[in-house]
Write a structure and sequence with these properties.
Layout: H1 3-13, E1 41-52, E2 58-68, E3 79-86, E4 89-99, E5 104-110, H2 111-114, E6 125-131, E7 137-143, E8 145-146
Parallel strand pairs: 1-8
Antiparallel strand pairs: 1-2, 2-5, 3-4, 3-6, 4-5, 6-7
Amino acid sequence: MTRTAMLALAVLGGCKGILNNDGDDSGSDSGGTPVDEFSPRITEPDAFCYEHTEGDTFFQWIITASVTDPQGDDTLDVWATLEVLAGGGVVYDIDAVVDKTAGTINTSFNADTAGINCDAADTYTFRLTARDSEGNEGTAEVAGRRQ
């Protein structure tokens, strides 16, 4: 292999995750918003449902993600939005807390109250949207799972 070919492979190999298959430069394969120099970045989203068994028994959804803002995490709004999608539309939405110090987004809700069935966890898509003080938005989506 020529030196130029090896260099090209090394450069392309280091770009994994920067371009996904549809030409989007989101920086993730989870359908996040395109990377730019202003929008918040949401990474490592997770949405899972589990059976809470201490005291009353019920099913609980937990949604978490990491978040940063290229203009400084102090510019992030303290509230993010979670939308639960199924059948092509939004079936539930709720606010999520942004912890600027920890760089996380967190929310939870009772599955029965929301009507989001744990037995069909993988049929739901969870979309998180974070905003900063300049009005820039970043989103990430993840499929639900049963723990």
